[in-house]
Known about the structure:
The protein is an alpha+beta fold. The chain has a single domain, classed as CATH 3.30.1330.110.
Amino acid sequence: MTLMTPEEQVTKDYQVRRWVGLVEETLHENGPVAAVPLRKAVCGVVVRNPFAGRYADDLSALTAPSAALGTALGRRAAALLGAPVESYGKGGLAGLAGEQEHVVACVTTVFGNALREAIGGGEAWISSATKTAAAGASLDIPLAYKDEVYVRSHYDAVTVSVPDVPRPDELFVCVAVASGGRVHERVGGLTAAEAREQAAAGQAR
């Protein structure tokens, strides 16, 4: 039996209109040019909202198959990034005929665990932002270090906006990844290197 790819599974379980990808590369923020540019990537998928225009208590039709969403979007985002993933985030938009809860149902733990695996692992909870909005609305997806949420240098965000997304009866589900912390981070706190050392020390005990 031939297994479906994550994209094929998503297409089977959700009515997909479009896949979206975005890459940013920042060399500086009015300071010295970074030795290694900061890369951020966003991947999203636009799907029909089966609950648009009506209220339903049971949203499992969106949650149950969402592991394939997390896998497909995570793999696409990591490929666009073209570098090891250090930070991640998730989120989405519900069109005006839907509810915020509809897009939240797509990005629960089922989705998050698949996303972690798709990008090479992650120990920290995944920052998230969702809202109900009209087509063309912007979404600021929060980013945080993937193995320790208290690494201050990696507190960040990336913005995505698509002119005709979401239509009233659609959901726009997104993930974001980054190759490192802010380009000119210099406000102290736990560093990524220190977090890795702490994790290694804990595993060695």
